[in-house]
Design brief:
CATH class: Alpha Beta
Number of helices: 10
Distance between the termini: 10 Å
Helix content: 40-55%
Largest sheet: 8 strands, parallel
Radius of gyration: 17 Å
Main location: cytoplasm
Number of strands: 8
Enzyme class: isomerase
Strand content: 5-15%
Structural class: alpha/beta
Protein name: Triosephosphate isomerase
Organism: Chitinivorax tropicus
Shape: globular
Subcellular location: Cytoplasm
CATH topology: TIM Barrel
CATH superfamily: Aldolase class I
Length: 255
């Protein structure tokens, strides 16, 4: 059975005051059986790590450099993020792919860098609205997944997380139906299995992201290949994020 995971991506939002407001409600509900990962802007990572201490909450970065060290002004390596208390790092979010020109190979290199330094990469994949309307979803997802598989050895697959985020559903209020998302998640699972991951590949969490809210979380989580969520805007409202997490606790079969 695949592992389950719910992650909050604050994007470029928040403040020290907001960290202190949002973290306690999440820490109070977080359970070891369903990892709850908070990914704030990098400047707030030490604060969030301190607030998450002595709870089941885990901490993730919103990006990680593909390089381990060097003349890369403004970058933060996976090793540095580990020192700040991170267990996870989001890589390849569509806002970086399409806004900052990150390529499939760059995203794959970032995932590999995370694995080298003991971080779990949350690898984002997904199609744009134009690609969706052109019927290219399967081709785009396959290309993005295979780029990662070219860099990550089969035995390390179990240490990764994938997040399917249809770009047309991010921040738009639109969301793929549970059935649409399930179809793509099933294809991702098949690609991971075909890559040689075997039984281990079946344990890789495949999250859904794209206007996840308290109102649609349970129906998404009920799908057999949706293992959790990467939550954007809703994660900035404590009650909404708690409700999404509670939907996971209530819906998933947890160890």
């Amino acid at each position: 059975m695949s592992r389950k995971l719910i992650a909050a991506n604050w994007k470029m939002n928040g403040s020290l005051a907001q960290c202190r407001e949002l973290l306690p409600p999440l820490a109070s509900v977080a359970r070891d059986s369903l990892p709850l990962v908070v990914c704030p802007p990098a400047c707030y990572l030490p604060t969030v790590a301190a607030l998450a201490a002595d709870s089941a909450l885990q901490v993730g970065a919103q990006d990680a450099a593909q390089h381990d060290a060097g003349a890369y002004t403004g970058e933060m390596s996976a090793a540095m993020l580990r020192e700040l208390g991170c267990q996870y790092a989001i890589v390849g979010h569509s806002e970086r792919r399409h806004g900052l020109g990150e390529t499939d190979d760059m995203v794959a290199a970032k995932a590999a860098a995370c694995l080298r330094h003991g971080l779990t990469p949350i690898i984002c994949i997904g199609e744009t609205q134009a690609q969706y309307e052109a019927g290219q979803t399967a081709d785009v997802v396959e290309r993005q997944v295979k780029a990662v598989l070219a860099r990550v050895v089969a035995e390390d697959l179990v240490k990764t997380v994938f997040a399917y985020e249809p770009v047309w559903a991010i921040g738009t209020g639109l969301a793929a139906t549970p059935e649409q998302a399930q179809a793509v998640h099933a294809s991702i699972r098949a690609l991971l299995t075909q890559a040689g991951g075997g039984e281990a590949a079946k344990r890789v969490p495949v999250l859904y992201g794209g206007s996840v809210k308290a109102g649609n979380a349970a129906s998404l989580f009920a799908m057999p290949d949706i293992d959790g969520a990467l939550v954007g805007g809703a994660s900035l409202v404590a009650a909404e994020m708690v409700a999404i997490y509670q939907a996971g606790l209530n819906t998933f079969q947890l160890d």
